[in-house]
Design brief:
Elements: H1 4-17, E1 25-26, E2 36-42, H2 45-53, E3 58-66, H3 75-79, E4 86-93, H4 100-109, E5 118-119, E6 122-123, E7 129-133, H5 136-151, E8 162-165, E9 170-171, H6 179-182, H7 187-203
Parallel strand pairs: 7-8
Antiparallel strand pairs: 1-9, 2-4, 2-7, 3-4, 3-9, 5-6
Helix pairs in contact: 1-7, 2-7, 4-5
Length: 212
């Protein structure tokens, strides 16, 4: 069911927040020694960041923009759906604790991959579902997962997730980082982000951090 009221709230918030003059910057995709990085787009990055950071083995998730061609895009530009970019998260993790395969499981367990250019009440190409890969092995893991979900008919509709090589990732403006933590009473957070996170917690079979 589409949450139209939440959509109106989001539009209003977008208009107000986009007056920020903050600049974005390209994020280094080279993790520290012994660490790894994965990038996913699955709708509003506020909730995606919150979800991935709750998973054991994840050190940090950074909100940003990727998948398009515009350099150093602003939130306002990405929200216009004309840059080719999607809201995404760069997930820094410890491969000794959690695998890329398990992060792909988190990705598909935490959003609806069957709605093209939409996630919940959010519409437009910047909210599309994308799983990024760094090498042939990661690409195979993603494609195998899509095949598994399709064969087992986990979703009623076909999966429309794009599978793309990892490209430049631009870190979103500071006010987007850890947004749920800093704005727990914001209407969109209370009406959309938190319910989505709670749904994920009920269905995800992997390990979550205490008090997450």
């Amino acid at each position: 069911m589409k949450m139209k009221l939440a959509s109106y709230v989001l539009v209003l918030f977008t208009i107000l927040s986009c007056n920020s003059s903050a600049q974005t910057k390209k994020l280094s995709l080279e993790p520290k020694k012994g660490k790894a990085i994965a990038v996913f787009a699955e709708g509003c990055f506020w909730c995606s960041e919150h979800i991935f950071e709750a998973v054991v083995g994840v050190d940090e998730a950074v909100s940003g923009y990727t998948g398009g061609t515009t350099k150093n895009p602003s939130y306002e530009q990405v929200s216009s759906h004309r840059t080719g970019h999607a809201e995404a998260v760069a997930v820094y993790y410890d491969p000794k604790i959690i695998s890329f395969k398990e992060l792909v499981n988190v990705f598909f367990a935490s959003h609806d991959p069957t709605t093209p250019n939409q996630q919940g009440p959010d519409y437009g190409s910047s909210y599309r579902s994308i799983a990024f890969y760094r090498n042939a092995e990661e690409k195979k893991i993603i494609l195998d997962k899509i095949k598994e979900l399709t064969v087992n008919k986990v979703f009623l509709d076909p999966i429309v997730t794009e599978v793309k090589p990892l490209s430049d990732f631009y870190e979103a403006e500071d006010y987007h980082q850890n947004y749920i933590k800093h704005n727990p009473n914001e209407p969109y957070v209370k009406g959309v982000s938190i319910p989505r996170y709670q749904k994920f917690k009920k269905t995800y079979k992997g390990k979550l951090k205490p008090n997450s």
